[in-house]
Amino acid sequence: KGIACKSRPKELTRWIINGRYSRRGNEPRFGWSELAIFGKSFVDWWTTLKQSSLEPQRHGQGRKGNGWGTLDVSGKNGWFSIVVCLKWWGMGLGEHREDALGFDWRHSVNDVRCTLNKLVSYNARLGKTV
In this structure, are residues 54 and 67 in contact, taking their beta carbons and an 8 Å threshold? Predict the structure, then answer.
């Protein structure tokens, strides 16, 4: 089982269907307008993943028994997909990662990093390896 595919960026879906990194040249190439659309698509997907995963925690009914729901997924269909999207977005920004054009990307990288750290800490307290 992998991370929810509902509302994930279409470029990620295409990349998975085409064999991920097993085929050369399978990564998307973005112009500026496509990169902006991809960035928004990623942020929307990430927001949906976080909300669907953490919402039950707010109501005291954790999914999968731990409250992390759809985000507690490892492997090539788990966090790897999230990290790959951030990589593509950052590579597309190039030298603009550190200026105003890269603000949303930097914010997303930090949010993903913080969320993953919390998940790893939670699982470590349970004695579960990720």
Answer: yes
Domain ranges within the chain, ordered by starting residue:
10-125
- pLDDT per residue rounded down to tens, the chain (130 residues): 678 788 899 999 999 888 887 777 788 999 999 999 999 999 999 999 998 776 545 544 444 455 687 788 877 888 999 999 999 999 999 999 999 889 999 999 999 999 999 999 988 888 877 5
CB atoms under 10 Å from CB of 119, counted, come to 19
Q: Are 45 and 8 in contact (CB under 8 A)?
A: yes
Backbone Cα Rg of the chain: 15
pTM assigned to the model: 0.84
Place of tokens 């050369």: 24
Residue 126 Cα to chain centre, angstroms? 24
Distance CA 16, CA 47 (A): 21
- Alpha carbons within 13 A on the beta-carbon side of 86: 17
Closest CA to 120 of 129, 107, 112, 110: 129
